[in-house]
Amino acid sequence: NDAINATTIFPQLEDKWAYNFAAIRYAWMFFDNVDRTPEAKTNPQYIKELKGQALGLIGIKYFELFKRYGGMVWINKYYTTEVVDLPRLTIEETVDSIAGILDRAIALLPDKYTGKDFGRISKTALMGVKSRLFLYAASPLFNSATPYMNYGKPLFICYGNYDINRWKKAADAAKALIDYSEQNGLYSLYDTDQPEKDYFASTSDISATNTETILGTRIQGTFDIQGWERLKIFSRTNALKPGFGNRASGKPTACPTQNFVDMYETKNGLTQAEDPAFNPQDPYNKAVVDPRFFATVVCQDSKWDIYDVDFSFTPATNKYGDNNPTGMGAYTAIGYSLRKFLQPEIDRLGKSAPNYWPYMRLAEVYLNYVEALNEYSPGNSDILKYLNKIRERAGIAQLPVKPSDNTQEGIRSRIQNERAIELAFEGHRYFDLKRWKRGNVLGGEMYGMKITKVGSVYTYEKTRFETRIFT
Question: Is the peptide bond before 400 cis (omega within 30 degrees of 0)?
């Protein structure tokens, strides 16, 4: 709404300009000076790895800038004074420069880090970043003769031509990591034949059993406090009026929309509208819906730790969430909240635990590979092979399911939907839509689920709660 402005948004959430350039400067300061330390003589291998990590951090931060702003000013050393006369690079020069610094770092680093060194930038992590870099570079936003805005200097925001070989470069980069991992036994999907639990674990487990994380971090702290902040999304205030537009107390910062929920397929590999097994008045049936939904979203009748969640409205009492004897009376603006990443039992047990964040998982590398391959070599058998690895772990039907799955356009749609579901809330969707030039999806009518209880009968009604604008 109109209240959102530069002073009301936490800048670390998206405006990455200053944060990334600060990190780049600090990394160059370290890289250019670390050889002066005593450890450079006593433990040169350690210093070599640290220098590789610094270069890798620079490459990652430059990628984060590139995906937001296009061609960048290139900083290649530590400056002790302010520099104002460096030129902006074209898209091609920027991509080549990032790839070059990633290659420099890769040559200095071990395959992966485990144990107490989990989270350090490794060779394979940067191979994954290269696959991400080349995928973005090959995408319609950049891989085009037509800039997306009349800027006057188009080569800063697109290549100025379309080249299908950019897709091949992206596919090759992803496949190089996949092959290297398979040959050396480095990574595998978290899969114990329990789809919902396995998917949740792949994005929340920091133990050695999670062999899916290529690069991630764990933030040590009082997770019990964070858990409580998240719990407050489920307001226990009962004096709310029916309908949408009334926000409960708390911090509903990550409430999935019905638009997002509708993207989940059934276990049969069909959309909810296509599958007769899906009942709109029983929309959260675990026998029907993709198990990843329940590991990602808190919905009506799901569990929050030991509690049964109730988002329903009862007209007879004019109250929300008062139908639950366990005390988990709840209300969100749109009938959903976020489950992924969170460990709600931590708050109840009064404990603290590290908060895990996956920057890159093997599943993403598979998706990077199949997307690029579908554009460069449609019909290639590896497309369904690696796409179906993800779907098999998820417990849903293998492709092809319907005739359109045998076409380039149909598989493109499947891959885009698979990225939305598999990588949900991991920081990809917004940028995927932009690089595909599908920003219109971010606008339009947004829906939630209104749940009403009359007597013992619950009804579910998709209800528009706002109309968004995306230009």
Answer: yes
